[in-house]
Amino acid sequence: MKAVTWHGKRDVRVDTVDDPKLVEPTDAIIRVTSSGICGSDLHLYEVLGPFMGEGDILGHEPMGVVEEVGPEAKGLKPGDRVVVPFNISCGHCYMCDMGLQSQCETTQVRDQGKGAALFGYTKLYGQVPGGQAEYLRVPQAQYGPIKVPDGPPDERFVYLSDVLPTSWQAVEYAAVPKGGSVVVFGLGPIGQMCCRIARHRGAGKVIGVDLVDERLTLAERHGVTTVDLRNQAEVGGVIRDLTSGRGADSVIDAVGMEAHGAPAGKVAQQLVNLLPKPIAAKVTEKAGIDRLSVLYAAIDAVRRGGTISLSGVYGGMLDPLPMMELFDKQIQLRMGQANVRRWIDDLMPLVTDDADPLGVEDLATHRLPLEDAPRAYKMFQEKRNGAIKILLQPA
């Protein structure tokens, strides 16, 4: 089959690799019809290379049609149309029962000290082949895959793999009061959906912060008040002006470790990537730092007693945090990988509603064949050609 594979920093290729096979009785094989490129994939493209292996198959936002099922993959049959959550979870362990599927005790990557295995996401999370491919082996298929109806286009459902549950959890964790205010830093796919979900759930004022014209325009189209970082020297003051001088009730950081405006962190990340791979991996794991400009801005912008929700991926171990300010302002901080399955019952009625209340058909800016993946990654990473969300579609 054809698959998108990692070969080094900013070097992804479409290779011919072995077709996946059933390995465990709970496996399934799906024929992929759509697979998104996530902002998290860009971390692999840029700074998390020390944890990647030559030829690793990328991608964790797939959907498609079931081709084969193992004898214990109950509830699935060939021909079923499914979305595959990015985290691999069993559905019956203590953590899954708690609604913390991203910490599944059956698939935890214990030798790396990490939570549930993820599709297409480094040695730290199990080095499981990903879904930017023609076919995908799905472990724990008795629980993970989400069956969706035939008929509507893939764009109605593909975001259930990651974008929608991640955004829903980010808004849930942000604890936005009814009629209250929320600021979303970063208007990529997750930030866009955070804004729409916050409005849908009753936020009174939704403010989106970014510095890319197309992202700001898309957010405005969905009723968001936008702040262009390029025009503001001090974004916290702007947020306070928009929230009666107090600051926002809730702030969502949808950017993460590669934020703009953090030159020291960027240089440190680039220097680590110049080290031999085994050393770079150890340095990143034990002494890595993130670009924290957005997190600092979130701490400044949130009101006293407010809540910050982190959905952008962070990976540093030595990140300096302004603990005095966090403590003095009595800020609540929540974060973590999305527990995809936990939020599907909330989201399914919205993506099957003919009115499309979250505008899922107004998110993808590019739909490209799988073989165009190298160009797609480069375009997305460089924020060119209006690229906000790219879907890869195997022939």
Name its key features.
395 residues, 6-stranded parallel sheet, 7-stranded mixed sheet, 15 strands, single chain, 28% helix, alpha/beta, 12 helices
pLDDT under 50 segments (min length 5)? Answer: 259-272
Distance between the termini: 11 Å
User: Over the alpha carbons, how many angstroms does the gyration radius reach?
Assistant: 20 Å
Encode the helix/strand succession as letters.
EEEHEEHEEHEHEHEHEHHHEHEHEHE
Largest sheet: 7 strands, mixed
Q: How many helix segments?
A: 12
What does this protein structure show overall?
It is a single chain. This protein has 395 residues and is of the alpha/beta class. It has twelve helices and 15 strands. Strands 3, 4, 5, 6, 7, 14 and 15 form a seven-stranded mixed sheet that branches. Helix 3 (163-174) packs across helix 4 and helix 6 runs parallel beside helix 9 (293-301). The longest helix is centred in the middle third of the chain and has 12 residues, at 163-174. The radius of gyration is 20 Å and the shape is globular. It starts with a strand and ends with a strand. Mean pLDDT is 92; it is low at 259-272.
Topology summary:
Blueprint: E1 2-8, E2 11-16, E3 28-37, H1 39-46, E4 62-69, E5 81-83, H2 94-97, E6 135-138, E7 146-147, H3 163-174, E8 181-185, H4 189-200, E9 205-210, H5 213-221, E10 225-228, H6 235-242, E11 248-253, H7 263-272, H8 277-287, H9 293-301, E12 302-310, H10 323-328, E13 332-335, H11 340-351, E14 366-369, H12 373-381, E15 390-393
Parallel strand pairs: 8-9, 8-11, 9-10, 11-12, 12-13, 14-15
Antiparallel strand pairs: 1-2, 3-4, 3-6, 3-15, 4-5, 5-7
Helix pairs in contact: 3-4, 3-11, 6-9
